[in-house]
Design a protein that fits this description.
The structure is a single chain. By secondary structure, this protein is α/β, with parallel strands linked by helices. It has a single domain, classed as 3-Layer(aba) Sandwich (Rossmann fold). Helices cover 31% and strands 25% of the residues. It is built from 8 helices and 11 strands. Strands 2-1-3-4-11-10-9-6-7 form a 9-stranded mixed beta sheet. Strands 5-8 form a two-stranded antiparallel ribbon. Strand 10 and strand 11 form a beta hairpin. Helix 1 crosses helix 3. The longest helix is centred in the N-terminal third of the chain and has 15 residues. It is globular, with a radius of gyration of 18 Å. It starts with a helix and ends in a 20-residue tail after the last helix.
C-alpha cells in the first residue's frame, strides 16, 4: 500500500471516529469533489427535516457498521431525523414506516420474513417512501424474494475476477445526480447484474472479458434511479467496502442519490422511459 493510500484511509477512519460523517480527502480529491458540487448546488434537494430509517446488518464483508458510522453522522449534519436499526424488525412498525421519507438499507445476503418484506414494500409502493442503497446492501439482500428485487430494479449475479481495476463512465450529464462529474476509476468488485430495463441509468461500466471471455465488451449499468409504485428508488453498484467511499465521485453520487430518493413524497412522478429494446410497430 502506498503512503498516499495509507494517509487517505487514516483520514476516513479519523472522520468516522470523530462522528463527523464527512470524508476529508487530500488535495486533488477535494478539488474534484468541490468542482462537482458547484454544478449541483443550484437544484440540490435537501435532507433537512426528513425522517430517515437506516437499517444495517447481514454479511459483515460489506462493512455495514463502518458505512453506518460514515453515513448516519452525515445525514444528521444535513438536518435529517435518523432512526438506526440493526434488525429487519424495524419494517414491522407500520406507523413508523409509513411516516418516513427515506429508507437506507445495507443488508447483504440475508433472509427476510413475509411480514418484514410486506412492511418495507408497502411503505415504498403505497406510501411513497423513498429507498436508497449501494452494492450488495441493496442489490444482493434477499435472493429468494423476487418482489423485493422488482423494487430495487436489479440483482447481483457475479463479480468476475473479484477485486479488480475498472472504470465507471458517466453517461448522463443532465441528471442532477451525475451532473458535473467525470468518469472515474475503481479498485473494487465490478458487479455483473440482472437489471430491470425500466430504470434510468446514469453511469455504466464495461467488462473486458479477462475473467469471463463471453462477456467481453458488455456494458453494465452501475448507477440508476427508478420508481416502485409511489416511491423513488436509488441504487449504486459501488461500495464493496468502506475504502471505496474514498473515491470522491463515487461518494458524491451516493449522497446525491440519497437526497433525490428522500424527496419521493414531495415531487410528481418523473417520466424517463427510454427502452433498451426497440419498440415494434
Amino acid at each position: 500500500m502506498s503512503n498516499q493510500q495509507s494517509n487517505r484511509r487514516q483520514f476516513i477512519r479519523s472522520s468516522m471516529a470523530a462522528g463527523a460523517g464527512l470524508v476529508f480527502l487530500p488535495g486533488k480529491m477535494i478539488n474534484a469533489a468541490n468542482k462537482a458540487k458547484a454544478h449541483y448546488s443550484a437544484e440540490s434537494p435537501t435532507l433537512k427535516g426528513k425522517k430517515v430509517l437506516f437499517v444495517y446488518g447481514g454479511w459483515e464483508g460489506h462493512d455495514p457498521e463502518k458505512t453506518r458510522d460514515l453515513f448516519v453522522p452525515w445525514l444528521r449534519s444535513e438536518g435529517a431525523e435518523v432512526s438506526v436499526f440493526d434488525t429487519l424488525d424495524a419494517y414491522l412498525d407500520e406507523e413508523m414506516m409509513n411516516s418516513l421519507d427515506l429508507i437506507i438499507q445495507i443488508w447483504t445476503m440475508g433472509e427476510i420474513t413475509k411480514e418484514q418484506e410486506k412492511g418495507l414494500l408497502t411503505a415504498v409502493k403505497d406510501h411513497g417512501v423513498g429507498i436508497a442503497g449501494w452494492h450488495g446492501g441493496l442489490g444482493d439482500s434477499f435472493r429468494n424474494n423476487v418482489e423485493y428485487q422488482f423494487m430495487v430494479g436489479g440483482q447481483w449475479v457475479a463479480h468476475p475476477g473479484g477485486v479488480i481495476d475498472y472504470s465507471v463512465q458517466i453517461i448522463d450529464q443532465e441528471d442532477p445526480v451525475t451532473r458535473g462529474l467525470n468518469d472515474f476509476d475503481m479498485h473494487s468488485e465490478q458487479y455483473y447484474m440482472h437489471v430491470d430495463p425500466n430504470v434510468k441509468v446514469m453511469a455504466t461500466t464495461r467488462f473486458t472479458g479477462e475473467h469471463a471471455p463471453w462477456i467481453d465488451g458488455c456494458t453494465m449499468p452501475v448507477v440508476w434511479k427508478k420508481v416502485y409504485g409511489k416511491g423513488r428508488v436509488f441504487y449504486s453498484a459501488l461500495g464493496h467496502v468502506i475504502a471505496d467511499f474514498e473515491v470522491p465521485e463515487m461518494l458524491e453520487i451516493q449522497k446525491r442519490g440519497i437526497r433525490w430518493a428522500a424527496e419521493s413524497k414531495y415531487h410528481p412522478f418523473e417520466e424517463w422511459r427510454d427502452p433498451v429494446y426497440p419498440v415494434s410497430k
